[in-house]
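Anyone? Bumping this.
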Amino acid sequence: MESASGTPERWARRCVVTGSAGFIGSTLSTRLVRDGWKVTGIDAFTDSYDPVEKVVRAANLARVAGTSLVVGDLVDLDLARIFDGAEVVFHLAGRAGVRPSFALEDRYVHDNVVATERVLDAARRAGVRRVVYASSSSVYGDGDAPFREAATPNPISPYGRTKLEAELQTLAAAGTGLETVALRYFTVFGPGQRPDMGLRLFAEAALTGRPVTLFGDGTQRRDFTYVHDVAAATEAAADAPASGMAINVGGGADVSLLDVFDVLRALVGTELLIDVQPFARGDVRVTSADLTRARELLGFVPEVPFAAGYERQVSWLRDRMGRAMELSA
Ligand SMILES: NC(=O)c1ccc[n+]([C@@H]2O[C@H](COP(=O)([O-])OP(=O)(O)OC[C@H]3O[C@@H](n4cnc5c(N)ncnc54)[C@H](O)[C@@H]3O)[C@@H](O)[C@H]2O)c1
């Protein structure tokens, strides 16, 4: 079946996903194609972690009909040309991670702030209808939980500050010929999670019998959000009856790191060796999302609770480590 413009009906809508080789961007892109979007991805395979992981995700995505990829830095590319004909830009490219941001502030400014400025400017010039921006719970800092979008942001790391600056730019662009929404993601997990993130590091250590490094006393709590739930909320944001607004995207419950270790012990079937280190700079005590706005505007209800999602992540990691062992044998 074809639409009046000659576009096959199954790809009735065109979009761009920046950061499409990333953990969340690759999951989102796969979902969008399944739902009938034609996806142009952009990624620079930056050195924030082993670029091979990004190249593998991009190669897997390239096998999916309806996707294409532009390799390059958002700051250097002719974005208006790439965005031409796209209805929505899902802007997920960025430099994530709190701890490295203290030593690499320039990189964070480049990938989060300058890149977002370029995306917004090009989206306006190309006639894109809407930009959906991947913001972060880090904009709240050590605020009162549960975090509500109306609270005054108070980031405590360069990462959080650059995400907030880009979010403010995004929201300010609403009404200048663009619709914009900023989604504040809360610690995203699941298969494919970034190698620098706690849940992945804990599981890798546990599966190889190495000590699990714990910063602090383990009572800090996180609102872990399953990656497929995040992708669903992000897709819904394309058509949300809102613009110029930030919306929390959380998992619906906060879990302490001590609870995480209980789940992990059961999944690996052994006791964990725990190497306790002092609290890390930039780490907040609690993150917890108020999801009222997400429910109302995105119809969002998280579907995968922590234990079930972590089981899938650990199983993905076991397969991955098994394949790596076979290759090295
Ligand atoms: N993972 C989380 O828990 C989490 C939580 C809150 C917010 N976020 C935000 O969601 C987004 C995606 O996070 P992720 O965990 O998938 O990270 P990721 O590092 O796996 O993905 C980001 C991708 O963006 C690309 N990129 C970075 N700078 C670029 C540039 N200048 N030009 C082109 N490509 C560039 C990277 O190469 C990478 O593939 C980020 O913006 C992050 O700040 C993530």
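Late reply, but here is one note on the structure posted above: The two ends are 50 Å apart (CA to CA).
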